[in-house]
Amino acid sequence: AQSVTQPDIHITVSEGASLELRCNYSYGATPYLFWYVQSPGQGLQLLLKYFSGDTLVQGIKGFEAEFKRSQSSFNLRKPSVHWSDAAEYFCAVGGTGRRALTFGSGTRLQVQP
Amino acid sequence: DAGVIQSPRHEVTEMGQEVTLRCKPISGHDYLFWYRQTMMRGLELLIYFNNNVPIDDSGMPEDRFSAKMPNASFSNLKIQPSEPRDSAVYFCASSLSSENTEAFFGQGTRLTVV
After folding, report:
1. Distance from B80 to chain A by nearest Cα, in Å?
2. Which helix H or strand E contains A90, and what residues bound it?
3. Which tens digit of pLDDT belongs to each residue from B85-96?
4. What residue in B sits closest to A93 (Cα-Cα)?
5. Whether A86 contacts A109, CB under 8 Å
């Protein structure tokens, strides 16, 4: 069965500081990996996705993520966080044969001025 | 396209009543997913459809929950009878048939059962 672990429930960073959100997945085949962001009262918006090829993927709003197969990880990074990045971030896994995504429990990001 | 459209945005109902949540997927999308989000359990897949046919409903909590997709542009999720523990945000999402594509989410329906 597929699963996603986001070990950090809540992270606080200062505005302008760098950010890394951790994600580990379990999937029996080649995974498709996603990061979504959810602002309060809103739906989920895709930040970036990995299907194949270059293991470093760029997304919207200056985010990037790196797929590391050996570590079963897909960590999200941003070099300089803005106050508007405060939200909840979800990592998700899917793949061939199973189109529905499995989501992690989310990491809530707080940004301090 | 207006994206995935869900209605209503908010629903408050009394325990025992029937609740119907509605979803209009993005035109041309072949897959439709229903998720439920709660503090305790996070985002859970309830059911998903491909070309209007249910593919996996193993996440539907119990017989009180049912979902249909009568055509490519509409799906509904019904809870009958509703219970307070059904209170959650219910999301609908849709995606294209090609594998290397993401799911697009609606704004969700916040259901409160009192």
Report:
1. 25
2. strand A87-95
3. 999 999 999 999
4. B102
5. yes
